Amino acid sequence: MFLKRYGREYRAVHAPRGFTVRHLPRGCERIRHRGKTYYYDDGVYYVHHPRSRSYEVVRPPRGIAVRYLPDDRCTVRIRGEKFYVWGDVHYKKERRHGDTFYVSVRF
User: Fold this and answer.
1) How many CB atoms lie within 10 A of CB 44?
2) 23 in helix, strand or coil?
3) Considering 22, 37, 72, 101, which has the largest number of Cβ atoms within 10 A of its Cβ?
4) CA separation for the pair 70, 73 (Å, rounded)
5) Distance (Å, rounded) from C-alpha 29 to C-alpha 31?
6) SS in 3 state form for 40-80?
7) Dist. CA 98–CA 37, nearest whole Å
């Protein structure tokens, strides 16, 4: 989480896309998707840049599956189907091998 100034106050916000960090948050999940490695934590995706030894906040690719979404996600119905929304990313809930996953989709 990062602090962003709103007038005289600061509010906790997630890192914006394009932002880079040297260290991942504790408990970050490593996900392999279509030959690329992503790191996921609380709705935020990172990719590693070895040259700069940093991690960049990125938009998730279509079809990546995660086990959980942030608690402040929203639920919407589109053409009768239920989707979960966090930020500007839509997810569809799926069951795989008895486990629940949220898979990113694009319209």
Assistant:
1) 23
2) coil
3) 101
4) 6
5) 6
6) EECCEEEEEECCCCEEEEECCCCCCEECCCCCCCEEEEECC
7) 24
pTM of the model as a whole: 0.86
3-state DSSP call for residue 21?
Answer: strand
| One-letter amino acid for residue 70 of the chain | P
CB 42 within 8 A of CB 29: no
Taking only the tens of pLDDT, the chain with its 107 residues reads 677 788 888 887 777 899 999 999 899 999 999 999 999 999 999 999 999 999 999 999 999 999 999 998 999 999 999 999 998 899 999 999 999 999 999 87
Q: Give the start-to-end residue ranges of the domains of the chain.
A: 16-105
Instruction: Quickly tell me which residue has 């996900």 as its tokens.
Output: 31
